[in-house]
Each structure stands twice: as C-alpha cells, then as structure tokens.
Write a structure and sequence with these properties.
A four-stranded antiparallel β-sheet has the order 1-4-12-11. 35% of the residues lie in helices and 23% in strands. The chain is of the alpha+beta class. The chain has helices spanning 2-7, 73-88, 91-95, 99-104, 107-116, 127-133, 198-205, 272-284, 289-318, 327-345; strands at 11-12, 16-21, 24-29, 38-43, 48-49, 53-55, 64-67, 137-140, 148-152, 160-166, 168-170, 174-178, 189-190, 214-216, 220-224, 228-232, 248-251, 254-257, 261-263. The relative contact order is 0.12.
C-alpha cells in the first residue's frame, strides 16, 4: 500500500510504521528520523469509494459480492489489500461486540439509545458494511460539501483517534495528515472531526475516549419562567465550528434548536447559539430583553437536570443488561458525558 501511494505521487513518512496487536492496528513514527511533519499525503484518486460495493453476509470475512460502479486498477488493488489486512487481523470477528452491531440487533437497547442520542442507530445490511461505516471518510465533490462519496483511506485508515490528533487537510489533488503524538509516544493520532463527545465515540467507534472535551445535550423539552418553552432536538453535529451553532426554529411559545454542544476548554461558547435564538424569539413575542436574559441564566441548571435524569435512566437500564459486552462501555461513556456537561455549565 505504501508503494502504491508513493508510485502515484503521494508521500509516506520514511519512519511511519503500521503495527498490529490482538487485531488492533495503529501507526507509529519516530519523527526525529526524517525532516518532515507530514505523516501521509495520499492522492485523491487513491481514495476508494465504498458506497457502491455490495458485501456478502459472511459475518467473519470481508468478501465482495458486487461492484455497482467500477474502480480503477489502483483502487481495486487497494481494496484487495484492505480486505487482506482486515481478514488477517480478524476485524469482523472482533467487531461482533461493537455497539453498532449490538444496538442494531436489539430493539430494546435501540430505544434506550435513541432517547439520549437520536440518529445514532444505523441500518445494518452486512457486518462488513457496518464496519466500514465506522471507518469511512466523506470525500466532497463540491465546494459546499453537499455532494460526495464515502471512501476508505489508504494508510490513514490505520491511524487512531484522539481529540488533539492531526486534522485531515484536503486540496484538489491530495489528502494530507500531519504528525500528531499527543500521548508523548511514537503513536500517531488523527482527529475524526466534529465535536465528538464521549457518547459519540462509544456509540460509533466502540471505545472510551477519556480525553474528549465535548458534550452534547440529550433531547430535552422544558419551560423557563417568563420565556416558556425550550426544545432541544439533540441531533448529532459534525460541525468543526468552535461554537457548533444550532439550527433554530421559532415556536409560538418558545424556540427549538437542533443541538447544544459544549467544550470544557471554552465553556462560554456552549450557550451562545441558544441565547441568541432566545433573544430573537423573545423579541418576536414581545418579551423584554431583561426577562429573556433572566431565563438564559436559568438555562444551565435546566439543561443539567434533564441530562442528569435521562443519562441516569440509560445507566439504570444498562445495569439490567450486564450480559451485553457494551453495557460497561456505555455506562462509562454516559458518566463521562455528564461530567463534561457539569464542568461546562457550572463554570
């Protein structure tokens, strides 16, 4: 795979190394061995589209059933290399305990997950397709990023996530990833992008990220004195904007926002979007700015109360499902989630 990338005009850091341990893959690099801060530079032509690949129902091996659109020879060689690596490291066998597989086949669990994180449940067609959904990169085809295709990334696929990891940078020719080693080891990390909080990481990727500084509110509806109704849809956001601005809907008796997202490093940003929405809603309904600002001051405690209740309900449910391998994972993730919210909203 390294040779293919270089042969097509890409770059691979001379000291980069892919390591495997018990099925887990990671990328390490002794950055002192070469004068470059670029880990990988992959030509866009080598990103492999996966939306139009049909996979067999084999739960233990990656096997292509059909290509609905042809890949070129280099992309075909890369997908075959991925299949060989994934199968040799028994990725699908290990994936059976992943949250994606568990809540997709357990309607009871899916209902509980949906109460705290709408949109997290994805339809599973095959184990291979489900696995790739946790790895794929959206490759935009227009400037707005509306049109595009999901791809797997040569070499970059093996780099693990850390919120302080390197960001992907793409131009018209290449996708680049720099060297970031936030754990003070030789392991390199990337940032999967967006404000991925502890629940997002656990549900989508199947591991605990104790370092995630983010937290999103669960869906919530409550009333504030003098202002009336606040609705938070609790939608997931992949925005990279520091304030993660929500979409806003004005109601006859209040306001509805798509999400409320915070970052413990900049806690003051969490309520910016909803405060502006509340001020606009209050003005439309003839409520004085002073009354609305008092309602804004009541927001943190109201948001915390709803999140405390719903996350505790999820934790109580998981305590009755200890036979699930992910019960302890999601319990810890929801605890970390609330801890982040508390830090943000009580500062």
């Amino acid at each position: 795979m390294r040779d293919l990338v270089v042969a097509h005009g890409g770059f691979v850091h001379p000291a980069a190394c892919i390591e495997e341990h018990n099925g887990d893959l990671r990328v390490t690099c002794d950055a002192s061995l070469a004068n470059s801060q670029i880990l990988f530079k992959v030509p866009n032509s080598l990103l492999v589209p996966v939306d139009n690949i049909a996979w067999t129902n084999n739960p233990y091996k990656f096997e292509i059933l059909e290509h609905f659109s042809p890949l070129d020879s280099a992309q075909s060689e890369i997908i075959e290399l991925f299949i060989s690596i994934y199968n040799q490291s028994e990725k699908l066998k290990l994936f059976h305990n992943h949250p994606v597989m568990s809540y997709s086949n357990d309607s009871d669990l899916a209902v509980q997950i949906n109460l705290v994180r709408p949109g997290a449940i994805v339809e599973i067609q095959t184990a291979a397709k489900a696995f790739l959904k946790t790895r794929q990169f959206f490759n935009p085809k227009d400037r707005l990023g509306v049109e595009g295709e999901n791809c797997i990334l040569p070499l970059m696929d093996f780099v693990n996530h850390h919120h302080a990891g390197a960001n992907f940078k793409q131009d018209s020719d290449h996708l680049r990833l720099g060297i970031s080693q936030p754990l003070n080891s030789n392991e390199c990390f990337c940032n999967y992008g967006g404000h991925r909080d502890p629940l997002d990481i656990a549900l989508q990727y199947g591991f605990i990220d104790p370092h995630s500084p983010y937290a999103s509110s669960v869906p919530a509806t409550f009333e504030l004195p003098g202002f009336k109704r606040i609705e938070v849809a609790g939608n997931r956001t992949i925005s990279n904007h520091r304030a993660a601005p929500p979409t806003v809907e004005f109601l006859d008796d209040g306001v509805k926002v798509s999400n409320i997202v915070g970052d413990v490093r900049v806690p003051q940003h969490m309520l910016l979007g909803i405060r502006l929405a509340m001020l606009a809603s209050g003005k439309r309904r003839g409520i004085s700015e002073a009354v609305t600002e008092r309602a804004v001051k009541d927001l943190p405690s109201a948001i915390l109360a709803v999140n405390r209740e719903k996350l505790a309900t999820l934790q109580n449910y998981l305590s009755t499902r200890l036979e699930l391998p992910l019960a302890s994972l999601l319990t810890e993730a929801s605890q970390n989630q609330f801890a982040n919210l508390e830090k943000i909203l009580t500062l």
